[in-house]
Amino acid sequence: MSKVALVTGGSRGIGAAISKALKDAGYTVAANYAGNDDAAKAFTDETGIETFKWSVADYDECAAGIARVREKLGPISVLVNNAGITRDAMFHKMTPQQWKEVIDTNLTGLFNMTHSVWGDMRDAKFGRVVNISSINGQKGQAGQANYSAAKAGDLGFTKALAQEGARAGITVNAICPGYIGTEMVRAIDEKVLNERIIPLIPVGRLGEPEEIARAVVFLASDDAGFITGSTISANGGQYFS
Ligand code: NDP
């Protein structure tokens, strides 16, 4: 029987590429999403991958959603914490609400999701957790105090949990993407993209979602069993941590 992989925010952008790549690698994939039913339906129609709606920011919804996935597909062997949001503002204008929403989704979401799969992974003496952080969690970014704090927190979470999971056969790793050509990034004004963003990227282009997805497939594989607590930077050379 194939292993079950759950990808949060798995119906759009980088998450959709991750869901597809895991399916192609032989996993039974469940893709979680928050609210965009049309995108989720189009994704399932295109890929045959089942989607499940709940917010990673809510602990009880995560526990109930994971129980639903478990009942339908079986215990989860691979968890990809990919769901993320931005609520950008310069700090002097940032509202408590903007801070809270980003921390709740991008940081607490990792606790909420991982807590509910951890027991099964420990029982199975096997598990793979891959956290999608960001270059901006490594280097910081003006206008993103909330996002940078959450994404840096994801890296601390990864390292602590890697130590706890090691003896139980569970690896926990993070990937820090740089600028990836998702809808969100391609929506940036072309002039800004070409004159202010791409020149910062030594390889001279945006990354592709599939380039992140292939790194996830590797970290999820048996071949990556000795890699835990690591951060893979996939940013075209923009920042070396
Ligand atoms: P998108 O905005 O394209 O997609 C985000 C996905 O996350 C959607 O499926 C969305 O669901 C889901 N989501 C958002 N909030 C929640 C929530 N509370 N509960 C469950 N699902 C949720 O994002 P990207 O593909 O661009 O980004 C994916 C990850 O990669 C994020 O963590 C982001 O921070 C990180 N990243 C992205 C970079 C980039 O250049 N794009 C660079 C560095 C890091 P729905 O469809 O229902 O809205």
UniProtKB/TrEMBL annotation:
Give the enzyme's main class according to its UniProt record, as a single word.
oxidoreductase
Q: What is the lineage of its organism?
A: Bacteria, Pseudomonadati, Pseudomonadota, Alphaproteobacteria, Rhodobacterales
| One of the protein's GO biological processes | poly-hydroxybutyrate biosynthetic process
Q: Which GO terms describe its cellular component?
A: cytoplasm
**Residue span, Ketoreductase domain:** 3-178
Record's family?
A: Belongs to the short-chain dehydrogenases/reductases (SDR) family.
Highest taxon, organism lineage: Bacteria
Q: Which GO terms describe its molecular function?
A: acetoacetyl-CoA reductase activity
Ordered alphabetically, the record's keywords are:
Oxidoreductase
In short, the EC number is 1.1.1.36
Q: What is this protein called?
A: Acetoacetyl-CoA reductase
